[in-house]
Amino acid sequence: MTVNTYSFQDQVVVVTGGSHGIGRAIARAFLDNGASVVVTGRNLKPLEESVAGYPGERTLTLVNDISEPAAGEELVAAVKEKFGRIDVVVSNAGIVEAGDLVDMDVDKWHQMRAINVDGFVYLARAVMPELVNTGGNLVAVSSVSGLGGDWGQAGYAATKHAVSGFVRSLALDYGEKGVRVNAVAPAFTHTRLNEGSADTLEDAAPYVNRVALGRLGQPEDIAPAVLFLASQDAGYITGHVLNVDGGTNASNGQAHV
């Protein structure tokens, strides 16, 4: 539940990558604020867990691999069959492959690019006509890695820079058609994707050292920012990538000693 409430009653929201972590928190936040919510992902059980306890008439779970070229159209058809419209789309599906570029497995690079970049492109191509019809908006989950560089993250940063650039260009192309396009840029956030990386205070210390608020992010820190960008309170905001990073980007890069 978010601290502030937003009016998403009678609106239909699609959240890709809704099985765990940030996507699950976003889906539940929209449900708590009155929306009907569609969650997509590659496995049914965690999708069902994401919307468990909410009225079935306001939820839809779709097993959908957004990296497939036809996935966007299939998603739109299924959503319109049940709800008849799409008002908000949250492009959250993504994976991380870290490490030195020369050691990166080519197949893993293709998979990461296919999900993080191609999947966003396929999704946007399919949903933009629907958002034009409803005067809706799209919010992408980018990353602070899409705003600058980082050690051992060259491939991932490349995909997230693509996401941030795509958001800005889409905002220009669709603003006059009544569609807003924005993104959030989290820093290191505790999710299933990075389990084991910062589970102890000692492991977390190098990450916390870079965060002004002195703690790592949680999925529930990201969801309210997405709701704000999707709401009418952000009605004059488009083409923006909002840092939701605890102050990570406030630093000039020097160590906190």
Helicity level, as a percent range? 25-40%
Measured between the Cα atoms of the first and last residue, the distance is: 36 Å
* CATH architecture tag: 3-Layer(aba) Sandwich
Number of helices: 7
Report the β-strand fraction as a percent range: 5-15%
CATH topology: Rossmann fold
Please identify the structural class as seen in this structure. alpha/beta
> What is the radius of gyration?
18 Å
CATH class: Alpha Beta
Overall tally of domains: 1
Poorly predicted regions are none
Q: What strand order characterises the main sheet?
A: 3-2-1-4-5-6-7
Strands, total number: 7
Element string (H = helix, E = strand): EHEHEHEHEHEHHE
- The CATH superfamily is identified as NAD(P)-binding Rossmann-like Domain
Largest pleated sheet: 7 strands, parallel
Mean pLDDT: 92
Shape: globular
